[in-house]
Amino acid sequence: MQNLSQLDVQGKRVLVRVDYNVPVKDGLVQDDTRVTASLPTINALLDAGARNVILMSHFGRPKNGPEEKYSLKPVAPVLEKALGRPVTFIAGTADSDETLAAVEALPEGAVALLENVRFSAGEEKNEEGLNGRLARLGDAFVLDAFGSAHRAHSSVSGVAAQLPHAAGTLLQTEVDALGRLLDGAERPYVVIIGGAKVSDKIKVIENLLPRVDKLLIGGGMAYTFIKSQGGKIGDSIHEDDQLDLAARLLREYGDKIMLPVDVIAADAFSADANTQVVASNAIPDGWQGLDAGPETVRLYSEALKGAKTVFWNGPLGVFEFEKFAGGTNAVAAAVGSLKNQAYTVVGGGDSVSAINRSGKADQIDHISTGGGASLELLEGKALPGVEAMK
């Protein structure tokens, strides 16, 4: 990819696609992680002499044009505070003539945030006309929204085809960090995959299995694997249509795949359910596995010792309930303990929440902001946004 140092921005308006799809409640931003993640790119452009930095992002899933609840206006003061300089919020659809006039009127050195790009018809269809109207807003384009890089949308890849372009700091960091998990990873290489469904992660599992030394499976998806081997899983979540696939993977990679040997079972999906520790393949009827058991935690922690590369995506249990957070927290501690010994990456979504809750986030080399984009890259897919930056 072309990086920022290869893009001439001196005296130019730079249109930057960021990812400000942040949680907002009662008009207030609840988590500014994605806002602060964009600061290195914004500051780098200003330091390089950009006349203006014009930021655009999607927010939520508005259905039929502008909806007040999906406005990016609440993000502007949060960005202003984090950046330490004024930020102009430009209301109205990003591709309108009024927005163009407002951008052209900005004083030199100003930073502006456009309204939600999904308010503009054609954004998700990568409509050529919209691409051109957005491209009017800048002399150069920077993509820094890794979380949207897997989408062939106007504001992601469409504008890039019409302006000189480069990858932002965040996008470059994400691609470099995740790329290390695919090519030339130092071994031993251990991957932990959790979450509810095998079907959500199967392509990642299939792409990584030939590359890794151990694959530790947890969360709800483990019960599909256990049932495929004839185990009794009680009322545990599983996918019957994935049983043959799970059985095949165990036949082909049984020496690499580790499954829970015991679980904390509950008599209801509830924070205050009754619990018992049982063998993972002997869960009584009426009970469901909601967390890894103590012996599984010990074995998985042991498997991580000595690892040189570790990737973790997905919790080992229903960590939102304190009773069933122990397995996830223990693995977080085990991965965190490898600081300065191994290259460690935590994939997006629930994994990020889990590592933040565990208090071990500062011990991880890279925490991906990508979610779906992270998984698609690790599946071996070409991401439209990344391809557009080449």
TrEMBL record:
Q: Which UniProt keywords apply?
A: ATP-binding, Cytoplasm, Glycolysis, Kinase, Nucleotide-binding, Transferase
Q: Which reaction does it catalyse?
A: (2R)-3-phosphoglycerate + ATP = (2R)-3-phospho-glyceroyl phosphate + ADP
Pfam families, per the entry:
PGK (PF00162)
**Predominant localisation class:** cytoplasm
- Asked if the record carries the keyword S-adenosyl-L-methionine, the reply is no
Q: Which CDD domains match?
A: Phosphoglycerate_kinase (cd00318)
- In this chain, (2R)-3-phosphoglycerate is annotated as bound at R34, R118, R151
Tell me the Gene Ontology biological-process terms attached to this UniProt entry: gluconeogenesis; glycolytic process
> PANTHER family from the entry?
PHOSPHOGLYCERATE KINASE, PHOSPHOGLYCERATE KINASE 1, CHLOROPLASTIC-RELATED
- According to UniProt, the name of this protein is Phosphoglycerate kinase
